[in-house]
Amino acid sequence: MSVMKKNRGELIVLSGPSGVGKSTVISELLSSRRDIHFSVSFTTRQPRTGEEDGVNYNFVSREEFERMIAADELLEYAEYVGNYYGTSMKVIQEQLDRGVDVLLDIEVQGAAKVKERCPEAVLIFLIPPSIEELSRRLHRRNTDEEAVIQRRLEKARQECRECVHYDYLVVNDTVVSAAGAIQAILQAEQCRSGKRLRLVQDIIGRD
Ligand code: ADP
Ligand code: 5GP
Is 11 in the pocket of ligand 2 (CB under 6 A)? Predict the structure, then answer.
């Protein structure tokens, strides 16, 4: 455990095609890193079976979402396969100001906006072992109609091209290995010299 008190939390963005396993890997990660705040997005999509309002998403109407856009309440938002998705600015700022790390699960356009507004954010892209495996996962999840699955697969090919704009690329082969790789990235980011200058200031000062 780190003894260093952090000033500001780290903003971590996880993207990847629908069905690659982002939610599953995030659950695994959060089970061992309870100090990370997962940002619950706002969406106009209908809840899937088992999804809870306020836990997986804040489910809102299109009118309410458009009100939030007009009131500039969102850090970023995007339209994805016919629905709006967005991140509340207020909640993120509060957590980061308290020194808490914040994890966003957002698609590529939103991630680009976050990087623009917060250049210090750490961007991680999750890919499947293959497109066939992605298709199997989307079908096995059994939450979307075939036409939606086909649109998501088509979108996946476009999205994966955007991975070059990310800091890290992680393959979700097994959930445990992918969550482990993300843990390692977060640890390495915490050790960046630029973020640890306070640790050497005492030493330099003693010369
Ligand atoms: P996403 O959040 O990226 O849309 P999910 O976490 O809902 O994806 O995962 C999609 C499906 O793939 C789920 O049925 C999940 O159980 C399964 N899955 C996730 N990761 C793996 C993995 N590493 N190996 C096999 N199946 C996986
Ligand atoms: P799903 O409908 O499968 O839950 O999510 C569809 C896509 O929307 C995923 O790629 C997910 O990362 C993305 N997403 C979820 N929340 C947000 C958000 O707040 N902003 C943006 N830009 N994308 C989001």
Answer: no
- The residue type of 70 is A
Convert 10-43 to b/e letters by CB count within 10 Å (16 or more is b). Answer: bbbbbbbbbbbbbeebbebbeeeeeebbbbbbbb
What pLDDT is attached to residue 139?
Answer: 94
Cross-strand bridge partners of residue 38: 103
Query: What pLDDT shows up at residue 207?
Result: 56
With a pLDDT cut of 70, the percent of the chain lying above it is 96
Over residues 76-101, the pLDDT tens digits come to 999 998 999 999 999 999 999 999 99
- The total number of residues written for the chain in this structure: 207
The residue contributing the CA closest to ligand 2 atom 10 is 107
Ligand 2 centroid – CA 199 distance (Å):
37
Number of neighbours of residue 181 by Cβ within 10 angstroms: 19
DSSP assignments along 73-120, one per residue: -EEEEEEETTEEEEEEHHHHHHHHHTT--EEEE--HHHHHHHHHH-TT
Query: Whose Cα sits closest to atom 21 in ligand 2?
Result: 106
